[in-house]
Amino acid sequence: MRRNDNKICSILLSAALCALSGSARAQQEFDQEKAAKAIADSETFKDCHAGIDNWDACNSHIYTGRWSNIAEYWGNSTAHLEPESLKGNPVGYWLYKEKGYLQLSTSPEMLTLSDKGKTASKDWERVTAPGRQADRTQNPFERWEVPLATKKLVRITGVLRGQQMGVQFAEVHYTWIYSLTPLGTELFKNQSIPSTGRGNRGGWIAPRELNGIDLNKTYDSKAEFFFHNGAWRLQENCNQLDICRLQRSVHSSV
Asked: Which among 62, 159, 173, 202 is least buried, having the fewest CB atoms inside 10 angstroms?
């Protein structure tokens, strides 16, 4: 009987040691380089909406189509379309005047993409209605999201790890910056551009005042990972697991 008891104890001890070893190995194998890539590739990180008004800091929105449909979105209430009408959207006017991406037409009065604009718009997102992608033809009402900047992850500054309710987690702290796109770089070379919109001074505004981003600032953020099915996974939606809200004890790691 004693021999059987010893055998059972030996089996249980081995199982416990294996579990501890597996847990330790999982934490040791947390790869910061892979974690950085997972964060940078995530939609949560790429999203640039910020502030109380939830404005898009990375993209400038312009509208094309029949002037009667889009005039208010250009900050203009004039009945007829003319170049001066576009200055309510300084980036839009710059795209028209300096880049030649937009063109005006009469009968009917419409603002559309030029051939150069159609080529450039391959990197833009076009929407005809909320939540619905546009077809390839130019419609009476379209919104274009013109990318002027992106978020760039700089480095991981620390990892806090622990376990709660049987779930291993890692809280990853990192820094990031705003990085201009090629089009954004061209725009920001101008000290000021024509504007009749909000915040203009004597009919001009500095590009850096348009989206509220600070190109000289490094921002701090954090992301949550959890260990599931043998791998560390980025937790983008805290509703899936409550690890983002749990009270827990953590310890630093590098």
From this structure: 202
Q: Which residues partner with 225 through β-bridges?
A: 170, 234
Name the DSSP class of 174: E
Contact 145, 121 (CB under 8 A): no
* Residue listed under structure tokens 């509208």: 63
Which residues are registered as beta bridge partners of 104? Answer: 111
| Closest among 211, 2, 179, 5 to 91, alpha carbons compared | 211
Confidence of residue 237 (pLDDT cuts 50, 70, 90): low
Burial class, 212, CB count within 10 angstroms (exposed 0-12 / middle 13-18 / buried 19+):
exposed
| Residue-range domain boundaries for the chain | 31-48+150-253, 59-147
CB-count exposure of residue 130 (10 Å: 0-12, 13-18, 19+):
exposed
140-189 pLDDT, tens digit per residue, is 789 999 999 999 999 999 999 998 888 899 999 999 999 999 999 999 99
- How many degrees, rounded to 5, is the angle at CA 27 between CA 23 and CA 29? 115
